[in-house]
Design goal:
The chain is of the alpha+beta class. Helices cover 18% and strands 42% of the residues. Bound molecules: zinc ion.
Length: 146
């Protein structure tokens, strides 16, 4: 089975999250995609976000302050998910680094903002809702629901 490293970006603003309709799976999901050769997961998350929504974003996340001697520390993802993705024609295993992102420019072309209280009824996977609740909580912008 194909195993891919993928990266995603969750954008939270004013207590809302930006989601797109996944072209192959048909569900609402945060933007993301495959990490290309010669690209880091952080770069992939930022590139995919721009391609899928029109918005330019920057990955944000905690760092421990490690560095020097040619080493810089990268922002930590919000979570890392191992996903079995069942496309109509093939199954992939995705190692998905899910980052929080912040907006730095661009124009919204595609996607929809969802408020925290719209997430319950959202047409998507339960794990996507869990990530979105986590993102709202991590940014201090949402009410945690059981
Ligand atoms: Zn894949």
């Amino acid at each position: 089975m194909r195993r891919c490293v993928v990266a995603s970006g969750v954008l939270v603003e004013d207590g809302r999250v930006l989601l797109i309709r996944h072209p192959r799976l048909g569900v609402w999901i945060y933007p993301g995609g495959h990490v290309e050769p010669n690209e880091t997961p952080r770069e992939a998350a930022e590139r995919e976000f721009k391609e899928e929504t029109g918005l330019m974003v920057e990955v944000v996340g905690p760092r421990h302050g490690i560095g020097g001697d040619g080493v810089t520390e990268e922002p930590l993802p919000l979570t890392i998910l191992l996903e079995t993705v069942r496309y109509p024609d093939e199954v992939h295993i995705h190692y998905d680094l899910v980052f929080l992102v912040r907006m730095v420019g661009g124009q919204l072309r595609e996607g929809r903002w969802f408020a925290a209280d719209e997430l319950e009824g959202l047409e998507t996977y339960e794990n996507v809702k869990e990530v979105l609740r986590l993102a709202l909580r991590a940014t201090g912008q949402g009410v945690l629901r059981p």
